[in-house]
Amino acid sequence: LRTPLKQAATSQLVLTERQPDCQPLTTPPKPKDTPPADPWTPTSNLKMLISAASPEIRSREQRRQLSDSSSEVLQTKHCLQERLLGDEYEKSQPSRKEKSLGLLCHKFLARYPDYPSPSQKSYICLDEVTEELHVERRRIYDIVNVLESLHMVSRLARNRYVWHGRHNLPQTLQALRKVGEDNKYIQQIQMIKKREYEHEFDPDGGRNEEMASSFGSSEQSEMSFVELPGVEFRAASVNGRKYKSLRVMSQKFVMLFLVSTPQIVSLEVAAKILIGEDQLEDLDKSKFKTKIRRLYDIANVLSSLKLIKKVHVTEERGRKPAFKWTGPEVLPNTQDTKLEATSTTCAPPISESIPSKEQCSKALFPSKGKQNFTRHSSLIKLVKSIENDRRKIQSAPTSPVKISASTYLFLTFLLETYFSLVLSQMAAEEMQVKCEAVPKAEASQQAALSQPLGVCPASHSSVSPLILPHPQSAVSYAICLHPSQAHTVTTYSPGFMLQPLPCANVTGIRSNNSKGLNKISTEEGDTLRGADEPAKSLAAEERPETKSKTSSQRCLKRSQALPENNLIKRRKSDEESLDTSLTFFPSGYLIPLTHCTHGNKAECSSKEKAGVCSVQHAAYSSPIAGVIPMPASEVKTVNIPAFHITPLNIMLSPNSIAAAPVLSNSCLNSSSASSAPNPSSSALNFMLQHIGLIPAGVQVAANPVLQHVPVSSQPENINHSSGSTNVQEGKVSEKKFAPPAWWVDFLFSLQPSAPKEPQEPQAVTENFFRTPGGPNTEPSQPANSDGTQRPSQGTLYIPQRKLEVSED
DNA sequence: ACGTCCCGCCAGGGG
DNA sequence: CCCCTGGCGGGACGT
After folding, report:
1. Where do Polar residues bias regions lie (predicted)?
2. Could you tell me the distance in Å between the CA of residue A262 and the C1' of nucleotide B9?
């Protein structure tokens, strides 16, 4: 097929000369050993001979010979080609890519229908496939193994498989997801990323392999293969628990996607997790390499299945290969969780069968499911985990704080939720969703936003029983750039980037720098550049008016001012395309709590939900205050930096935010609410207090405008927008992005294996809520006081990450 | 120089 | 014992 015959004749001669005894000439692999450039070396000949002697190959050839002559011809040609000299040879030589596993997989898949009629099963004969596809048998195994891991095929006997197609995919994915959750992969990923991040600043430092402990507890899932009940698996009792590595790896790899929120997994992380799980062995270099290689194999076939897609996460450390899940969305597996809306909207009775469920959700949400659900079940686990932590803590009040990864995550989540509320509110206020051009993504976004409260991520309602998002609010949550997460930050889906803004900016100036700072680009997006422009020009025309509480409104205006073309461009941008335009709001004015309803209808309805809620309550009512003792006097008022919220997939409509309602204090059970802080601070306080991070009486101020505003030391760098500024910042700021220092410190301090042990409570606390502004949070600064790019003491710079999507 | 990953050796073990 | 399976990693190709 793909083998040019041109040089066949020529090569034939040569070949004959050289290898008179190259008999059947049907040995494709062997000739390979001959270095194309120097085919005639004794060495090469020797190699060929040796290869030819291989029993395996010989036997296979024999089979081939009698099987069919046509293929033999091809083989011959192939063989001949191998012997061509230099350029000629090269030209005829199918590019390496043409021999890729991915391509081969495509060919393989092309042979069978995605959804074979259940009546007539199609069988797969490896020999046939091998022959027809013209490949080494070995390669087929690679493919079949991962297909098997997805239950798309199952082995019948030697050399024989049954083709199931994608019929089982939903169940399989569902199952995998569950297992993934059970395995606490999310936590592990966090762990790894965090460590990774730490190493950036402390390369040779702490060999803290102690995360084993955090990993440990949950590896009941050794090397087991996830079976599927319904699917008759291997009639033959081929239960060699052993040789399943690739299959198991494949499954785990998939799990990783299914459980992580931005469904992007880097090979590196995946490899580490897969290794770490087997044995907490020393991260052997070669072992790691091998793992990566295997992952590539798996990834290739998964790619062929269109389940994942290769992307790149670029950060300052370089480009890291990663993959993004593009397969069907898998809802958290909640067998008994009823999504209110679902039950009412779905005409057909909700059976417990996954497929129907999926269909149901599909009907509800035209596109794939929403990621908003992905939190749900995992949250349950987190909560439980937190409970344990709490217990431990209580039993050892004086011992150093040690919080599990899950608790850490939970806290993160809470904060995340907090921000999401802000966003929700904005959305509620007639916010206009801005969807990406890519249909799938678009649909998904739409669905998420039009989603009725009932379907609102359970996580939200359960987490903040007292603070419920407005019914019509969009259910999108913010993606906070935690250092560890930042690695793969991708602001995917209803994603937002949060970043601290120097107060100066908050006053209503478009921070040019912020644009560069936090930039995520896509490769396919030439659109990105385009989108950038409007933003810039917009920024240029933006003029600070007055300085007062109207800042928020100014922000609104700004958003309103977004040029139409910008909108359009964004629409066109691909799903990964991230909006880099600048639209930010002082968090204080945008907190979304319209009417907080205590235990309203959104309350736990299903059993599971009820369970969740109760657990949560427990968690709340027993704050882990002890964890971080903090004299109220120490933290009477803390500044929470304003955030720069960059809408990625969502756009505000011109008139939307102006009317952003304010949270009524009654919603807060906090006594301190009387001080009538702005909504955001109220919410934040509520949250922090409830998780015991701050005493009930303590108040955290979230509105920078109302607080003293430490002005950036380099106001000139940020408070205006000129062409030149754009240029310079382009370089500098594009390199670094600074998360709120307090946020970073805060999160890090909560982490189980935080390198720097929280010295004393107070100190830690102070770190959490360092005042905003200041040099540390000034992103556009080329370097810190120490002259390096490294953050100093309490500040952590997160290297800017780019997400590039490269299709091939 | 590094990311990808093809290629095929060879050990295990099913039949 | 044959030979199917599939772990494994050297090293070539692509960028």
Report:
1. 712-728, 777-795
2. 40
Query: How many residues does this entry show for chain A?
Result: 808
Report the candidate in A629, A737, A625 with the shortest Cα–Cα distance to residue A690: A625
- How many angstroms is C1' of B13 away from CA of A242? 11
Please name the amino acid found at residue A557.
K
d(CA A435, CA A777): 31
The gap between A284 CA and B1 C1' (Å) is 22
Sign of the alpha-carbon torsion through A174, A178, A183, A189: positive
Mapped onto helix, strand or coil, the DSSP state of residue A788 is: coil
More confident: A108 or A35: A108
Q: Is the CB of A239 under 7 A from strand C?
A: no
Point out which residues pair with A643 in neighbouring strands: A500, A585
Q: How far is A739 from A500, CA to CA, in rounded Å?
A: 6
As a whole number of angstroms, the distance between CA A462 and CA A618 comes to 12
Tell me the pLDDT band of A104, cut-offs 50, 70 and 90.
very high
H or E stretch covering A319: strand A318-325
Is nucleic acid strand C under 7 Å from A56's C-beta? Answer: yes
What are the E-state strand segments in A618-677? 637-639, 642-647, 650-651
Cβ proximity of A92 and A4 under 8 Å? yes
Mean pLDDT, chain A, whole residue set: 46
Which of A220-229, A573-582, A750-759 has the highest average model confidence (pLDDT)? A220-229
Question: Percentage of chain A with pLDDT > 70?
Answer: 23
Give the nearest nucleotide to A54, CA to C1': B9
Q: Burial of A797 by CB count in 10 Å (0-12 exposed, 13-18 middle, 19+ buried)? A: buried
Packing angle between helix A169-182 and helix A376-395, nearest 10 degrees? Answer: 10
CA distance A375 to A372: 6
Strand partners, A498: A645
Burial of A540 (0-12, 13-18, 19+ CB in 10 A): middle
Which range has the top average pLDDT, A451-460, A515-524, A666-675, A677-686?
A: A677-686
Q: Find tokens 């995520």 and name the residue.
A: A520
In chain C, which nucleotides are within 7 Å of a protein Cβ?
Answer: 2-11, 13-15
Q: In this predicted model, what pLDDT tens digit does every residue of A320-357 receive, in sequence order?
A: 889 999 989 888 766 533 322 222 222 222 223 233 23
What is the spatial distance, in angstroms and rounded to an integer, between the CA atom of A291 and the C1' atom of B3? 14
d(CA A301, CA A18): 39
Task: Give SS3 for A134.
Answer: coil
**Residue A159, by phi and psi: left (phi above 0), alpha (psi -120 to 50) or beta?**
left
Q: What are phi and psi of A350, to 5 degrees?
A: -80, 105
Q: DSSP string of A200-245?
A: HH-SSS---TTHHHHHHTTTT-SS-----SSS---SS----SSS-H
Q: Does the A101-198+242-325 domain belong in CATH 1.10.10.10?
A: yes
CB of A805 within 8 A of CB of A521?
A: no
β-bridge mates for residue A321, sequence order: A312
Residues 22-81 of A with CB under 7 A from strand B: 28-30, 32-33, 50-51, 54, 56-57
**Angstrom distance (rounded) from CA A474 to CA A421:** 9
> By three-state DSSP, how is residue A746 classified?
helix
Confidence of residue A225 (pLDDT cuts 50, 70, 90): confident
Indicate if the pLDDT at residue A46 is higher than 60. no
> Would you list the domain boundaries of chain A?
101-198+242-325
Residue A1 burial (10 A CB sphere; 0-12, 13-18, 19+): exposed
Give the count of beta carbons closer than 10 Å to the beta carbon of residue A36. 19
**Residue–nucleotide distance: A318 CA to B2 C1' (Å):** 11
CA–C1' A805–C7 (A): 32
Q: Which two tokens stand for residue A92?
A: 């005829």
* Spatial separation of the C-alpha atoms in residues A328 and A475, rounded to whole Å: 20
Out of A27-36, A87-96, A363-372, A386-395, the most confident range is: A87-96
